[in-house]
Specification:
Oligomer: single chain
Shape: globular
Strand order of the largest sheet: 1-2-4-5-6-3
Helix content: 10-25%
Largest sheet: 6 strands, antiparallel
Number of helices: 2
Strand content: 35-45%
Number of strands: 6
Radius of gyration: 14 Å
Length: 138
């Protein structure tokens, strides 16, 4: 699924759409994003050593996972973060890196969905987390 197809599911646009492609296989979503170096979130974080902020990595996980919610979204509904748990940052992500995400829904109690995910660069773990969403009316 490319970014145009992702936009059919996610409400994110422009600088906040942080997944360039995603595919779903056997209940797991696999996404990717190439960090170019000119992104808004790198400006000032940090001037001499740009590092993708942890919250942005968590957002990449969330956006990847939301593709799995496509079948649960009625028109006008949006997924919103409800919580982040057990977040662990392992390796910094820098310009030139391609972030690979792998996420799955572990349980649901609509309108809440609970997930876990991880992101890596070249097979090296960068972040892992458990998190939840609430599907809300827009």
């Amino acid at each position: 699924m490319n970014q145009e197809q992702i936009k059919q599911i996610l409400p994110h646009r422009d600088a906040m759409l942080l997944i360039e492609q995603v595919e779903e296989r056997e209940g797991v979503a696999y996404g990717s994003y190439h960090v170019r170096g000119d992104e808004w979130f790198l400006q000032g974080h940090f001037p001499d050593f740009p590092v993708v902020p942890g919250v942005i990595l968590c957002e990449m996980l969330a956006q990847t996972t939301c593709v799995l919610l496509a079948g649960s979204l009625r028109p006008g509904m949006r997924p919103l973060f409800a919580g982040l748990d057990k977040v662990r940052f392992k390796t910094p992500v820098r310009p030139g890196d391609t972030v690979q995400t792998q996420c799955r829904i572990v349980r649901s109690k609509p309108p809440f969905y609970f997930a876990e995910g991880q992101a890596s660069v070249n097979g090296v773990l960068c972040v892992k987390a458990e998190y939840s969403f609430a599907l809300t009316e827009a």
